[in-house]
Amino acid sequence: MNAWKVSTVVLGAFIVVTVAVLVALYSITERYINDMFQQGCHGASHTSIPSNFTSGPLTLQDTMTWCTHAKSLGCRTVAPHDGVHVMPERLGFVLQKRTERLVCFRGSFSTTELLLDMHARQTPALGGHVHSGYYSIYSRVRPFLAPYLVGATHVALVGHSLGGALAVLTAADVLHDSHATVDVVAVGARKVGDTRFTERLTHNLKNSTKSSLRNVINVTYFIPLTPAGAFGNYAHAGTLYLYYAELGNWTRNHALRTYRQLAEQTPAARIDAASHDFTAS
């Protein structure tokens, strides 16, 4: 009996210590991840976003500028400004000009969003199967976007990382439910859906005059080349704009400022995603 009591006490102590260690590790990891995501967040608590945008196809340089504005929403509120409609959870913003729209999404900015980034099992949606974590986030912002997209004839969609994935999902939704054209630029985004989703999106892009989808990828960072393997049959859509820039670590390789520099200084290799299967090895 005494030995049993001792064993019970030891086991209880082990469980308590294990839980304490796990909580400490989670706290440290969360702090590190949040610091990594929130680089450049020091200083002012407000940001200013212009309410006007240029009509016509987005240049890559313009895309990086809008993505930078969206990124600032991760840690700053928007100074009061007519015409800038901020999404729930500050996931991005919408601008309107007559029948045109510009929709900008930010990248991940919390541990919770990172965990959803990693939830790559597929769920049925939008004519195929899509990344369940991204679709979960998109489902939260979709009701907000719907009224702004009603009556639109052209929708420009941009985003970096998570934001790029949300831009692709929104484009698939717009092309399925309306006659609007889309101009999508996804920067450093992972694959969003399976081949059925991608084929349907590609078909709708071709049938929609002046619609386009550009996936801008630095191939030295493996994330845009995933998910793959056990998570399902994933594929990119549109045209791949490929860069090769090795800056010493994954964070710098994936940083929005790196993509901005590449867009300003280096021509990208352009490849039709439908004819290639880019996968992280």
What is the fold's blueprint, element by element?
Blueprint: H1 2-37, E1 46-47, H2 60-72, E2 77-78, E3 84-86, E4 92-97, E5 100-105, H3 111-118, E6 122-125, E7 128-131, H4 132-149, E8 154-160, H5 162-177, E9 181-187, E10 193-194, H6 195-207, E11 212-218, E12 234-235, E13 239-243, H7 250-254, H8 256-265, E14 269-272
Parallel strand pairs: 1-2, 5-8, 8-9, 9-11, 11-13
Antiparallel strand pairs: 3-4, 4-5, 6-7, 10-12, 13-14
Helix pairs in contact: 2-8, 3-4, 4-5
Key structural traits:
alpha/beta, two-stranded parallel sheet, 14 strands
Provide a descriptive summary of the structure in words:
The chain is an alpha/beta fold and 281 residues long. 42% of the residues lie in helices and 22% in strands. It contains eight helices and 14 strands. The strands form four sheets. An eight-stranded mixed β-sheet has the order 3-4-5-8-9-11-13-14, with helices on both faces. A hairpin with a 5-residue loop joins strand 3 (84-86) and strand 4 (92-97). The mean pLDDT is 84.
